Amino acid sequence: MEMVVLVDHAGDPIGVQSKADVHGQSTPRHLAFSCHVVDEQGRLLVTRRALKKRTWPGVWTNSFCGHPAPGETLEDAVSRRAEFELGLSIDHITCAIPNFSYVARDASGIEENEHCPVFIARAVSSLTPNPAEVAEAQWTSSSELKSAIDAAPWAFSPWLVEHFTELQPLIAEHIVEAEDDD
Predict the structure, then answer these.
(1) Side-chain half-sphere of 113: how many Cα atoms within 13 Å?
(2) Is the model's pTM score more than 0.85?
(3) Which of 89, 107, 124, 121 is nearest to 158 (CA)?
(4) Cβ(61)–Cβ(47) below 8 Å
(5) Is position 23 annotated in a ligand binding site?
């Protein structure tokens, strides 16, 4: 059974609960993460959530999201989910927005209530999306993504809409840092 870490409003752990039980009409705050993957050309990977996903099925979002297991570091969880959702190896995993949190309710009434640090990572392998997680994947520029979010925010996950303006200038910095490390 997959477990998630419950957190207080500061993001500090206060317990655990099964993932299956945590998401509902009144979801307790729990730890999650979002990750944006960039390629060697500086493009961002956006994905459309699989239609069978329990929350926000079919919406476009960042590259992937997930929940760290109890005792798992966020960086290890990011690597694990990149492989699981996208069949992708990543490096240069950087926490760009450590204190991002949001609460949102999808059309089915399920509430998300997440302390959700936002990461940027670099793709180092080819993409093989898991169809149970990802309906579509597309590489795009950050400016094209920002324009699309501004034009049709309803087509994107609420967490992406909420954090992307803060994240956008950090993407270019991450690309330069990754290149400098090589």
Answers:
(1) 18
(2) yes
(3) 107
(4) yes
(5) yes
The count of structural domains within the chain is 1
Task: For 86-99, give one letter per residue: b (16+ CB within 10 A) or e.
Answer: bebebebbbbbeee
Q: What is the DSSP letter of 86?
A: H
Q: What is the pLDDT of residues 86-134, one digit of tens each?
A: 999 999 999 999 999 999 999 999 999 999 999 999 999 999 999 999 9
Residue 133, domain extent: 3-181
Active-site position among 35, 65, 116, 133: 65
Residue 114 known to be catalytic: yes
Reply yes or no on whether 162 is catalytic: no
65: CATH = 3.90.79.10
* Joined tokens for residue 179: 């290149």
Q: What is the DSSP letter of 10?
A: T
